[in-house]
Structures are given as structure tokens and as C-alpha cells.
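Complex 739.
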Amino acid sequence: MPQVALDTPLFEVLGAKSAFLKRLERLGLQTVRELLWHFPSRYEDFSKIYSVAELEPGQQATIQGVIEEIHVGHSWRKHMSIVEAVIADDTGSVRAVWFNQPYVANVLKVGRRANFSGKVSIGEESDLYLSHPAYEVLHLADADSPGGGDRRTGAGRGMKHTARLVPVYPETRGLTSRGIRFVIEATLRRIAPLREWIPGSVLGKLGFPELDHAIRTIHFPDTVADAAAARRRFSFEDLFLLQIENIREKMKLAAEKAPAIPADLDDVRAILAELPFALTESQKRSLWEIIKDIERPRPMNRLLQGDVGSGKTVVAAIAAMLAAEQGLQTAFMAPTEILARQHFLTMKKLPAAARAVRRPVIGLVTGSGATVCYEDGLEESVTRPAMAKKVAAGGIAIVFGTHALIQKSIAFRNLGLVIVDEQHRFGVRQRAELAANAKKKNGPVPHFLSMSATPIPRTLMLTVFGDLDLSLITELPGGRKPIETKIVPPPERAAVYDFIRAQVREGRQAFVICPRIEPEETDPNAEGGADTAAAGRTALVKKLDLRSVKEEFEKLSTKVFPDLRLAALHGEMKGKEKEEVMRRFKAREIDVIVSTSVVEVGVDIPNASIMMIEGADRFGLAQLYQFRGRVGRGEHQSYCYLMADSAERAANARLKAILDAKNGFELAEKDLALRGPGQFFGEVQTGLPDVAMSALQDPELVKKSREAAVLVVQEDPRLRAYPLLAKRLQTFREAIHRE
Ligand code: ADP
Ligand code: MG
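Predicted structure with adenosine-5'-diphosphate bound:
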């Protein structure tokens, strides 16, 4: 038989007529590589061979014996075939039963010797039998031959379904673990030895098994420890590649040209002196780090991270003003129009307070139109095309909008700085895209500043965001009181409503967050999406009887708070409608907003003092944390109520974590541990392979991968000595960017 390579399509291995092909395709497996990288989700330990006399009910056991009888029958309803066999060894005999697998009788013939692995069950007459055992017919060479391996363990004798650690795969309809094992085993037998691509120094230092050994071991390990070592190696692989990619991205960026933005420190001092407040220490430090970055003629790539309300916007805005002073434009992007408008308004006030610098012309681009605010503070509404023209001519220094700003048609004359608020929501791929789009052909690369209020666990920071430099705002502006947070079980709901009314009477405002929009159809986290996955989730959500914005709004405005002014806010509303609601809320024309996670990010309403979160256990920690940050932004004592619809839900570990955690970072670590990185990112695509995603929960491995990557790249930046590694990196990069 010809040898196969990793890129060989599976039809060449299995034959184009193989019934397996279609089924493997359903699992997304078309090449040898994809097949071999389809790892078992677990192993069943059938390694010890029991004698029939040793069998006990409930065991998972392997026996080896001769088939004494076999017959195919039908159940009384005639619907189901039943194959029954009697298997004997030196110590006795036992029955084995298979339902609906008539073909078993074609393989297991009387007189043949075979291994059977499965669960030992008790029959109606208290007799023992094996139900649906996996089986493997032994050829003469396998059974009892001298030197054929350990009599008591099947390992090392080519067994794949029985008498060993048996791999169990993520399955699909019509393709069982047995089937997958069969094709993988056949492929492994025919594949040429795989060449190691991880540098020997790295591999040796970390003690990981070599590729060829690891790929065989992960499928057919002799021991659990072997399987674990192989798996760790594969987790390491992806992290290692990611780290190398990050380091090289960083080096590449460092080689690019960016417009230098030298800051006149007297200007900066004057701006700060005229702000209505003093910057906190970490705001100052962050601003300083940004200034140091942008004054160099190579692109900044920095993440400004700080809790909600820690004052990131003002720091970024000052950077934008410094750019404007140098005649460079800034694109300032937010995930929603509400937020873009908020930043626009902040910016409008800022230079008015700081007379030290020229007032830049600023613009806001929305889905429907655009607004310009000139040097004299006067505003003008213009059409989007008119705005685009002004921006292209360099007439607008700072342009606010959603990320459509750069993705669509708006071309800048001399873009010097790109600021993205809440960038993690855009995902990693989009970030790269933004940066790429922002760069004009052959032109300089603009400086890039992302802002995020989501505390990102350290392991993620070092991997997914590993190419970014980090500035941290670690404290909240002075005078803010910690938010009182409580988990509320059902009997205390009325008391919360009373408290909301009392607060509103004192002039405060409240948010009520619901997990979904509609009573029945719509899923909260899939606003606008109606694919089948969402439909599936919807069914689930319906069962859980989650509170919806529409129902709660109805109930609260007619029954609970008929005397207060309420409004609903959710993702099905048009941008303009949402903005109108937020405007009225800000102007205190509304007392209580009933909303979905739309308010999750950034909205600044210092007068709001209550955040009530329905179905709180349905949200991730990071999200709850964001919600809570919507209040406590002014001088008033604020409150956060995590509503649980049952006592059981009130005992939820995640909710308890939010009460206990000292800060956002601690919470983020917990969230990652409790729910895994997929949940942490929610819908956001990271482009990371699954193995790498789960490896993120292993900080030790992340650290090792980083150290190894630094070592390799420092020693050989172009990876000249490691052509196989360079090739692997290329494939990895394509996979990430293709996502
Ligand atoms: P973030 O974007 O980090 O969530 P913002 O930039 O929206 O926070 O700031 C929240 C509020 O705090 C704003 O009203 C802002 O003007 C105000 N603020 C920012 N820095 C300070 C400070 N050092 N002292 C007092 N208030 C501040
Ligand atoms: Mg903000």
C-alpha cells in the first residue's frame, strides 16, 4: 500500500467509495491531517483482561474468549434485531447482547476467539451479560502467542477497540467511535513518520513527546499518563505558534513607519490644569505611556484597560487632541452609536475646558447622517457624503463613529491615530482588519489605541492579545463609593421594587436588565440573528422562562410602577430610537430603563444609582461586571441587585464570585475558570483553535509557550534554521485569519 502524507485527501486513503467519507466530511474531516487531529474526547480503560469468573455487575470490563454460540433474533415488537452470543473462556461463559446491530453476526462466527469490552449488566434471571460490548476478533498471532505482549494487557498488540485504553471520539450520526478508531488506525499504519517541527531545544527542555510519537499516542495510548503528555504537547503547539506570531507581529509593526506625534509637555500640563478634575495616578501614568509611544515614528499598538468609570475616555481624548495639534486625524470608534455620540459629546466639552490648545474640528458619523462641531463650538448637521468629503480633505480632525467608520467608504487624508473603545467586542480578527484598513497604500501606519473595560485574565492577555502593549488604569476617580451588591432570592423582589421607588423619589434613576427581548421568540444574545443555533437556544431559553424586556416593561409600567416614567431599550429598536431613549434618560425624563444587554457598554449616566439584573445567573461574570459598572458613576451611593428566580439559582457559584471578588481582574480569572474562554468571549470569534482555547486555562503552559517563543525568535527572528516551523506558522496564520 502506498504511504500517505498529512495533506493526502481521505478518499485516497479510504477509497472513493468508502461509506465513511461522507460521514467524516460531516465532522469536517477531509484530509489525513484533519482526521489525525480529530482527538479523542476521552478514553475508556479496557486495558485489563478479566476472566469470566471475575466479572461483576456494573463493571466496564474486557474479556477474551471463544464464541460458542451466536444467533440473530427479533424483539417481540419485531422492530429491533437482537444478536446474542455466548462467549467462553477457561473459567466459564457469559452472554453478550447487541440491539439493532445485525451485522455483528457477520463478523463474530462460532469458534472464533475475540476480545469483548463493555458494561457488565444483570439479566432478568440474575445472570450476567455484556451489553453492546465492543469486540475485536483475534488472529492466531494475537492470542496467547509467546512473546505476543503481556497476557493481561492488550497494549502493544495492535488492539484498537478492546483490551486497552480505548479512545472515545466526538461522534456524529452514523459514525461511531468504533468507526473513527478504525479509520484512524488504518491511516496511522500507512502514514510516513511525521517530521518534528518544534525546535529540538524547546522540545527537550519541556520534555514533550515528539510529534510522530505524540500523534500515535493521543489516539492509542498505553497509559493515561502517555495520553496526557501527548495532549499537552498539542495544546502547547498552538500556544507556541500564537506566541511566535505575536512576537513577530510586534517586530513587524516596529519596523513600520508611523507619523510621530511629539507632545508639547507644557500643552499637556495646561490641558490637565484646566480639566474640571485631577487625573488619577494611573490615568497620568497611562497618558504618559501613550505620549511616549506616539512621539516615536513607529506605530503604537496599545491596550488601555481600566474598570468602567475609571476614566479611559479622557485619556484617549487628550491623545487625540495632541494628534490634532500636529495636523493629524484621529478615528475614534465605539461599538454602538450611543457610545460614539457619548464620546463625541465628551470631546466637545474637553477642549472648551482646556483653552491651552486649539479646539479641533470634530465630527460624528451615524447610520443616518453626520454632525460636525467647528472650532467655535457650533454644530452643523451634514449628509454622510458631505462628511466623507470633509474627512478626505482633512477638514475634520477627530471623527467619531462605529467601526463602520473604517470599514466603509470613509477615507482619511492623514490619519495619525485610531482609537477603538471596547475593542474586545470587535474580536481579534476585526482588530487586525481595522489596522490594515487604516493604513493607506504605502503610507504610514496610524498609531492604534484600544480601550477595554473588560478585565482580561492574564493568560488571555499574554496570548490572544499578546502583541499589544498594556496600560492599566487601576483606580476609580476619587470620591466614588463602592457599589452595594446583593443576590436577591424571589421573596425579596417586592422590597427591591419599593427601594427603587424610594430612590426615584430622591431623584435617582434605575436600570432593569433582562436576559431577552421577547417573551418567546428571540434569544437575548443573538439579537437579530435567526439561524438554527439561535433557534435551538431559543427553545432552551423558553423552557427556562427567562424574563423578557417586553413583558417586564409591560408589567413594571402598568402594575409595579404606574406612577413612574419608564422606557424600554433593546437591540430590535432602530439606532435613532435607542439614542432618543438614552437622551431622555440622561435628561432625567425617564426614571427607569428596562433593557437588554444593550446598555452593557460604556453608557455614562452618573445620576443612575440602581442596577437590577433579572436572571443574573444567565450572564457571564464579565458581563455582570460591566452592567454593575453602569451605576456608581456619580457621587451617589449605588446598588446592584442580582435577581435570581429561585433559591437554587441564588446559590449560583458565579453570582457568589461577583460578591467576593476584590476587582475586575480577579473576577475575570474566576470567570475563565468557571466557564472557559469560549464563554468569556461570548459570540466573539477569536480565531483560535479549540485546543488553544482550552489551553488558556493552563497558565503554566501559557508561560512556557511564551518563554519558548521568545527564545526561538530572539535567536533566529526569520526562523531560517527552522523551515518546518516557519511552514507550520504560515498554515497557522492562514487558519487564524481565515476565521
Ligand atoms: P470609562 O470610559 O473608563 O468607563 P469614562 O471615561 O467614561 O470612563 O469616565 C467616567 C466619568 O468619570 C466621566 O464622567 C469622566 O468625565 C469622569 N472622570 C474621568 N476621569 C476623572 C477623574 N480623574 N476624576 C473625576 N472624574 C473623572
Ligand atoms: Mg468608556
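The first helix runs from residue 10 to 14.
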